[in-house]
Write a structure and sequence with these properties.
Largest sheet: 8 strands, antiparallel
Strand content: 35-45%
Keywords: Signal
Protein name: LamG-like jellyroll fold domain-containing protein
Bound molecules: 2-acetamido-2-deoxy-beta-D-glucopyranose
Structural class: mainly beta
InterPro entries: ConA-like_dom_sf
Number of helices: 3
Number of strands: 32
């Protein structure tokens, strides 16, 4: 999780990020929240990674396009435009600033990739035709150097000195077709994940943002996110800015990815714990997911216990197994619990999720939870088992709202990504 966070912070911030897939439609999921693209005569189609609704397909006609209104959020000086394309014909706009004008334009022209500042400036074009399959393509313009570059799969494939000029990037953006019957070059093919940056990205950055919608903005927003390492100590990095955990009798220790201060060590006594004050920011009430990396050295004790000396929602190690138990808010009744098989004494990425909407009989039942209490990690105030609990913990992350799809963890180059989907309730 530390790696994921660093990666996130180091990635350049997009001026616009349109995934163009079934999940997000034509919406911008970037921080600028630009208007959604207006789709016309386009439909969802398979994307570059096999998802059946992983792109939009343009039919190659005047009336098949996406128009993105530009209220200033797409207006840049230096610029980088990136997208996945799979073209089926030889000519048409990927991105054209101007409905029927020549602002900055990024096209397929005579089967080649093409980038140009205006209708009359020097342009960059690939020296070869682009094969008709998926490519991760891009163009960048560096105002300081005046150079326009073209990129395919993270490699620079063409450049041209165009001069330092302010761009006509104030126009609305057209993808697929300009609003022109005189210029009948309309793109036939598919486009996935349009990214626009307000600067000329380096090659390293272009490679780094290649999978950006898969590993950053598509992630669910955590209610609380405590890295529990040397860099962030017990502070919450989430937008909720919950109070920092109060560490007591714990110390920094090596983490799951080899960092010497990548976790907190709990000593397995009643005075070794982290207490997180809950001012309401952790009170998920209904559905909840709690995730952490855990390397336990004994068999019993709390990972997360809502309530410093009471039984709110709790997520423990019990008899060497993972244990989670919801706790009905309305009264003292505890709900049915879930147990895992026994846990190996190494780093494990563990979690529990409670689905409030899941009303199935044999399950725990649907009840508002006791998540209003302060949170205890490592030791509950008066429970024998706290005395023998010893563990290293890092990176606690609580996600709220109701999960729609299953939670799944995906490892890629040692960085893990956790995917959820939420009902926006
Ligand atoms: C791009 O950056 C410039 C200078 O930092 C700023 O004035 C402009 O508002 C930015 N545009 C967008 C679309 O973020
Ligand atoms: C590239 O595409 C153009 C336009 O369709 C075509 O005329 C040309 O023959 C193609 N070149 C190659 C090498 O396939
Ligand atoms: C770009 O990468 C894709 C696979 O992601 C590959 O199919 C395509 O041929 C590559 N394009 C070029 C020009 O190498
Ligand atoms: C943009 O051009 C300036 C001036 O030539 C140069 O210092 C800078 O490194 C360039 N930026 C990128 C990302 O290439
Ligand atoms: C992006 O994802 C694809 C498909 O999962 C993978 O092949 C590729 O290596 C990834 N690229 C980066 C830079 O992580
Ligand atoms: C939660 O329960 C609802 C109702 O049974 C179900 O539709 C939904 O898929 C469940 N969510 C998850 C993440 O399992």
């Amino acid at each position: 999780m530390l790696l994921l966070i660093l990666l996130t912070e180091e990635l350049p911030v997009p001026a616009a990020l349109y995934p163009l897939n079934g999940l997000h439609g034509t919406r911008d999921i970037g921080p600028n929240k630009n208007p959604a693209g207006k789709p016309n005569g386009v439909h969802l189609a398979p994307g570059p990674f096999g998802h059946p609704q992983g792109s939009y397909r343009f039919s190659g006609s005047f009336s098949s396009y996406i128009e993105i209104p530009n209220n200033g959020g797409l207006d840049t000086r230096s610029i980088t435009i990136l997208a996945w394309i799979n073209h089926e014909n030889e000519n048409g706009p990927i991105v054209n600033y101007g409905e029927d004008d020549w602002g900055f334009h990024f096209w397929v022209v005579n089967g080649r990739l093409f980038g140009r500042l205006s209708g009359s400036s020097p342009y960059a074009i690939t020296p070869y035709n682009l094969s008709k399959n998926w490519h991760y393509v891009g163009t960048s313009y560096n105002f300081s150097s005046g150079v326009v570059k073209l990129w395919i799969n993270g490699s620079e494939v063409a450049q041209e000195i165009s001069g330092s000029e302010e761009q006509s990037t104030q126009y609305n953006v057209r993808m697929g077709a300009k609003d022109s019957t005189t210029d009948q070059r309309y793109l036939k093919g598919r486009i996935y994940c349009l990214q626009i940056y307000n600067k000329s990205l380096s090659q390293q950055e272009i490679i780094a943002v290649q999978n950006r919608t898969l590993n950053t903005y598509d992630l669910p927003v955590p209610t609380a996110f405590y890295p529990l390492n040397a860099q962030h100590l017990t502070h919450d990095l989430s937008a909720n800015k919950n109070p920092a955990g109060k560490p007591n009798g714990v110390h920094l220790a090596p983490g799951p990815f080899g960092h010497p201060q990548g976790s907190y060590q709990f000593s397995g006594s009643s005075t070794s714990y982290i207490e997180i004050p809950n001012n309401g920011g952790l009170d998920t009430r209904y559905s909840v997911t709690i995730l952490a990396w855990l390397n336990q050295e004994n068999d019993d004790g709390p990972i997360v216990n809502f309530g410093s000396d009471v039984w709110g929602f709790h997520f423990w190690v019990v008899n060497g197994r993972l244990f989670a138990r919801p706790s009905r808010r309305a009264d003292r009744a505890q709900q049915k619990n879930a147990f895992s098989s026994s846990l190996s004494r190494t780093w494990n990425y563990v979690g529990t999720s409670y689905n409030f909407s899941e009303v199935a009989h044999e399950i725990s039942g649907s009840a508002e939870q006791k998540t209003q209490y302060d949170v205890r990690m490592g030791a509950k105030a008066s429970d024998q088992r706290s005395k023998i609990f010893s563990t290293s913990l890092r990176c606690r992350r609580t996600a709220t709202k109701r999960c729609r799809k299953n939670v799944q963890s995906v490892y890629s180059d040692g960085v893990f990504v956790t995917l959820f989907s939420y009902d926006r309730v």
